[in-house]
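Listing S7. Sequence submitted for prediction.
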Amino acid sequence: MTIPVSQRDTRAVDTRMNERDTRIKDRDTRIKDRDTRIDVLRALALLTIFIDHVPGTVFENLTYKNLGFSDAAEAFVLISGISVALAYGTKFKPGGRLLATLKMWRRAGVLYVTHIVITMLVIALFCATAVFAHRPELLKMINIEPLMKNTPEVIFGIVTLGHQLGYNNILPVYAALLLAAPAFVLFVNYRPVAALTVSGLLWLVAGIWQIAPPNYPEPGLWFLNPLSWQFLFNIGLAAMLHVKRGGTIPINRWLVGFAGVYVVGAAIWVHSPLWGQITWFNLPVVIGGFDKTFLSLPRLLHILAVSYLVVALPAVSNLFRAKPDNPLAILGKRSLPVFVAGTLIAMAAQVLKLINPGGLAYDTLLIAAGIAMQFALALYLEWLAGLGPTRIKPAREEPARAGFGAPPIPARIGGY
């Protein structure tokens, strides 16, 4: 029996509406089940990075880096490892590994392109200010000077990540970690203890023998060494995969006490004459120092101690729990565009601070305006994503084949 065209259109519309309702329910379930603490903590890390990237303001003295050995970069990388486990951990199974791998590599490609675009925009910003504001000294800052002296080689270095601007070196290490993430996830899934042991040995070897991707054409190494920072990334990845498999993070009062003493001691240390020593007891810098490039042990232990206290103490953990529509949760959810905006705004604020150092009111205006713009961008993107389709179009019909003289069935029913 041939179904009339109108009935087929109605059934097609009903099918698509049911599919849309299912997608909406799935989205609402994901939103409801989403642990907003991750988003809130990521948001706080992004805002802290923004403030720290505008040096010279009074607010720089109030950020997380003043409370211990680690700073927002460690928090960001640890959260990134946790996020990779949440996004790809359950998908990395036989039959889905290739797709998950391609998605991680695509994300790494997005980060690479984003880094190059940010670098070019920052260079353009400093060059434009140097020309039009008659401030040629800007061309000697944030590692731009080599570009002026050795342009072809530095351009090649920028594209190959061998030349990175100051305050613009987080995305390359994250992209490198995502390229290796499929191997990390596979190894951690099957042999978590062995995986973390190998990861820790790689961190130690890279730190002791100073092994890292080289700069080009300038001498030196990457500011953030992925061979070192992969250990922190993998700790976050392994911990979250353990939890997703039904495990728990053990809460031990002795560990809580040690973490608390270490965090308090670090806060006192960084404000004492002890701070500033390259290394202690003639130990390798990766063990007895506070080097950021190779993620020295005191820095690593500090971010792990802080994280353990957040997990172990409900009173602390609940401080970061928020509703999905909380502005901080939304900002953390839209982390990449917010990071891009925050970096560009921070670079513009650096230029403004150099032209006019200002005072407390000026610093407050710069930082408050930058933070407000990042929140505005995140809220706009969230609003845009929630718009959704407003009407369901009927499914396209194939032409009728009842005979040569029969007219084709219209692809659209109703108005055009």
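Caption to Listing S7: primary sequence and predicted structure tokens for the chain studied. Residues 390-416 have pLDDT under 50 and may be disordered. The radius of gyration is 26 Å.
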